[in-house]
Amino acid sequence: MNAKLLLISVFLISLFALNALADGCFVYKESSLYCTSLTDEQAETECSFYDSCSLRDAYRDTKCTAQPQCEKIICKSSCEETYKGLCLRGSIPLEDYDEWCSPGCCRFESAIGEFCSHLESKSACENKAKTREVDEFNFETSSEDECLASCFEPLQQEEIEPDEEIEPEEPDPTEETEESSFFFPLFIFFLLVGGVVAYYVYYKKVHLPKQAQKRQKQQDIPFVPRKTALTKQKEKEHAKKVHDFTKDTILSQFGPLTKRTHSAVTKLGVMAKHHQKRKVDPFTKLGTVLGRHSERKMQQKKVAKIAKTRRTPFEKLRDLAKGRK
User: Fold this and answer.
1) How far, in whole angstroms, is CA 52 from its chain's centroid?
2) First vs last Cα of the chain: how many Å apart?
3) Distances from the Cα of 99 to the Cα of 21, 103, 143, 155, angstroms
4) Dihedral sign of CA atoms 76, 80, 85, 87 in order
5) Would you say 90 and 103 are in contact if contact means Cβ atoms under 8 Å apart?
6) Does the model's pTM come out above 0.70?
7) pLDDT in tens, 114-128
8) DSSP secondary structure letter of residue 206
9) How far is residue 191's CA from residue 14's CA, in Å, rounded to a whole number?
10) What residues does each domain of the chain span?
11) HEC string of 38-70?
């Protein structure tokens, strides 16, 4: 279970890193996913929706931030922020935004006559001049009434700038190599971090509880040392040392012990006590002898009685012949 958890963690981190390495930039202009980071499979699926889409031209193996056509600009033709590759008329500098994106009076000379009208922006005026195949036009920021009044004044025109078309640049092999060399250490780093995190989780959640349970079981079991020959010998040596120590302590306190001797009077008293124990009353002794004699007589009578009741085989045969039982 623990090994599975570790492998799953490493696999997920590796998959995430590989996906990060595999993402590229989709640059097909007609797609709504223009300048979006996609994987190879996603780019192939998106490109299949368009007949004129070629995956080789519409997909870059680098990041979208490295593509010049994916730079965000304010487009001259729409006065809106968009990708540079989708803006054919070029960009408007931020400081010129009011000039190009404010309403004003548009005037130019064409083959069908002079054009003078109030339009929403200078970009609209430029587009109008191009539709009539005019290379020069005049635009001034003004209100609608001011524009109508200026239509009767002499015309001063400015030349129309050619359209800018951003061609997709081929990816630089050196940039791809640099990005690949950057992502590989990053992938190794994430892999190592994932391994460390997985090991930490395993160590804290599984290993430490198991060790705690093992120590608890060892504490619950009483320790009973096993006696060996060496242990028994040590016990004997310890007992001898205790005995010697006790003996030395007693000798140091009371001095050496001498053998106890008895005086002559004490010995005489002991002998008298033993003699009194052996001394027996004559009547008691006579009674004991008579009792033993009577017991012997009774025993002899019992033996004689038993002998009388016993019959020899000849006596039994004789009794049978006489009809006696």
Assistant:
1) 50
2) 101
3) 44, 9, 14, 19
4) negative
5) no
6) no
7) 899 999 888 888 888
8) I
9) 6
10) 2-69, 71-101, 102-163
11) ECHHHHHHHHCCCCCCCHHHHEECCCHHHCHHH
